[in-house]
Amino acid sequence: MGNCIYCGKKAGFLKTLHKECEADYHNGKQKIINTIASAITETSDFISLENEIKAISERNYVKPVEVLNLYSKGWIFR
Q1: 6 pLDDT tier (thresholds 50, 70, 90)
Q2: Could you tell me which of 69, 56, 68 has the C-alpha nearest to residue 27?
């Protein structure tokens, strides 16, 4: 029985992920990009932005190293 690559819990026989966790992960990445893009175009407190992005990444299984790449996508997305 394999473990989910996102949450680490048992995923089932010959499975490596939960569909819900995978959806949360992809939604979280998009949410981070949108949050960064919004912060760039609005007057924003960048310290609270960092905290918000950290909370999203933890809740949606996005690794810190991936967040660094999403910052550049947020700049381009705006």
Answers
A1: very high
A2: 56
The tens digit of pLDDT for each residue in 14-32 reads 999 999 999 999 999 999 9
Task: Give me the phi and psi of 17, to 5 degrees please.
Answer: -160, 160
Length of the chain: 78
Structure-token pair, residue 15: 């499975």
Alpha carbon distances (Å) from 9 to 1, 4, 24, 29, 54: 10, 6, 15, 21, 22
Burial of 38 (0-12, 13-18, 19+ CB in 10 A): middle
What single-letter DSSP state applies at residue 63?
-
Give the pLDDT band of residue 43 (cuts 50, 70, 90). Answer: low
pTM for this predicted structure? 0.85
